[in-house]
Amino acid sequence: MAERMTAWQCIGCGRIEGAQPCVGICQDRKTDFVYASDHDEVLAQLALARRRAETLAALVRQLACTTPRKDEWERTYRALQARARQTLGTLANDEQSRPS
Length: 100
Known about the structure:
The protein is α+β, with helices and mostly antiparallel strands.
C-alpha cells in the first residue's frame, strides 16, 4: 500500500507546508499526499487487475453464450475446459513476470 503523508494546504493561495507568498486569505486545511512512485505502482496494479478481469470476463461470456450441438456437450465442455486452463496459465505467467 502507498504510504500517505499528511500536510496542510491553504485553500486560498495553495501553499503546501512551504514558503509561498500568501495573498492574505489563507485558511489551512488538512490534506493527504502520496509519493508519485507509490501512485504509479498502484496504477500499474490496477491496470493488471483490469486486464485479468477482462480476460476472465471473456471466458465467462464464452461459457454463458455457448450452446453445444445435439450430442456434442462433452466435446464442448472439454474445449471450454481447455480454454479455461489456458487462461489460468496465462494469468499465472502474468503474475510471475510482474515486477515486485
